[in-house]
Design goal:
This protein has helices spanning 6-24, 53-62, 148-157, 162-165; strands at 29-31, 33-38, 41-46, 66-69, 73-76, 81-82, 90-92, 110-112, 125-131. The protein is an alpha+beta fold.
């Protein structure tokens, strides 16, 4: 606890537990993202911390979508399918309608979100869409398209296993 709060220690512990799994499956592309499925297709929600990935994932699960993963997702690049990696999702508290600077994100309290077992996806799902959420309280809610090159760079920026894959990624 010397260098951080209990929340920081638990966050680091979760990552340290996941790391051997990531290393054991170098055939997969591991992303810092969330994923949900609807009508058999997965939606990847990728982006930097504090962009609302976990909040969006858990909200979609309350609306009939199925949960694949939050925070870390395994993508099979040979089949373009997301494999279920169901960690308990955690959402930031107290952000409300204000933008939080990146350097204060670690100080926010996170709460575990309990999902109903029937909302957890049991089978890999092919990727149907990719979303990069961007929270700006001054902007209207909407979706903007991006080029394939921008999407690729966004995914690589959030890859946890890019070093393993290099050019193949």
């Amino acid at each position: 606890f010397r260098d951080g709060s209990l929340t920081d220690v638990l966050r680091c512990l979760r990552y340290e537990v996941a790391l051997p799994l990531i290393q054991a499956r170098p055939d997969l592309l591991w992303l810092h993202a969330g994923a949900v499925a609807y009508q058999g297709h997965a939606v990847i929600i990728s982006g930097l911390s504090g962009r609302g990935k976990s909040t969006l994932v858990t909200k979609l699960c309350t609306l009939g979508w199925t949960y694949l993963s939050d925070n870390i997702i395994p993508l099979d690049p040979t089949s373009d399918k997301i494999l279920p990696f169901p960690q308990t999702p955690m959402v930031c508290e107290g952000t409300g309608q204000k933008e939080v600077p990146w350097y204060l994100l670690r100080e926010l309290r996170k709460t575990e979100v309990t999902l109903k077992p029937e909302t957890v996806c049991q089978e890999p799902a092919p990727v149907g869409a990719l979303i990069f959420p961007n929270y700006d309280p001054r902007s209207p809610i909407g979706l903007l398209s991006c080029s394939p090159a921008t999407a690729t760079l966004g995914l690589l920026e959030n890859s946890l296993s890019f070093v393993t894959h290099r050019e193949a990624a």
